[in-house]
Automatic annotation (TrEMBL):
Keywords: ANK repeat, Metal-binding, Repeat, Zinc, Zinc-finger. One of its GO terms (molecular function) is zinc ion binding. PROSITE patterns: ANK_REP_REGION, ANK_REPEAT, ZF_RING_1, ZF_RING_2. It comes from Cryptolaemus montrouzieri. It holds the Pfam family Ank_2. Residues 19-55 form the RING-type domain. InterPro entries: Ankyrin_rpt, Ankyrin_rpt-contain_sf, Znf_RING, Znf_RING/FYVE/PHD, Znf_RING_CS. This is RING-type domain-containing protein. SMART domains: ANK, RING. ANK repeats lie at residues 123-155, 159-188, 192-221.
Amino acid sequence: MNLEDKFHLLSNCEDELICFVCEDWCKDPVRLGKCGHYFCSICLPNYDYSCPKCKELFFKEDVSTAHWYGEVRQSVEYFKTILEPLLENLEKLKNTDKDENTQADLPFRIKFADPKSFKKNAKGESNLHLACKRKNIQQVKRLIEDNVDINSKDYACWTPLHEAIQAESIDIVIQLLNSGALINSVGEFYVTPLHKAVLMENSAIISILLENGASKDEIDFYGRKPEDCTKRQDLLEALNEGKPKENIEKPHVFLMNKVMVYCHSIDEEYRKKIVSSKNIRICKDFNIKINN
């Protein structure tokens, strides 16, 4: 039995020791002889000879105060205290060994998101798009912590970063960039976030984007670089003076959790990298019924 199984078993034991009525550790515990469930002595009289948990009928003589509740609870709490940090460190080691080492030599970081986080409204906007438009920095932080796709595009190809720039929310722009938003992702008419910042005439956001590696050479649908979108001297100076800072956060790309990959022909080196990720499975035989 591995650590996870042992911890799960202890958690089940803990659940059995919690009073089903008050949902807390049993106070002055009593045990029902027929089903073996524990309750607080003051909680049980509220039920007329029917176990609140399993509905098993019992008689007054089935209620016992002679049991091992105290000793069992003490043992469960003791071993959970020992196993919990071990399990947490084991999970960190697993993630480090598999995902972080797999991605160490990549120019971006792969993150796996819950499929529900890809949900969009009628305009193709995610909850993160809407939070950026409303300048709700707290909701933006919560959504990023929930590992939503920060680079998802609405049906007009705008990303949350474009929306944050449109809303002129510097805090949200910084939050998205620090969380690995794709800084040169193009929106409608191939407008990059830097194009958008210039069009919004926001020199502060222009400087922030350039510090985080925004390209000044991308062209939009009309063949314009960001510098071609303005004649204001202060904005042109901001574009010319901006330089990337050191240790820029790697951009993050998001995949749905649990990915199936069909590999017909692939170098062994790359196959090992794919296999080492806990979220990806490789299948050797393609079956449209299984893999679709």
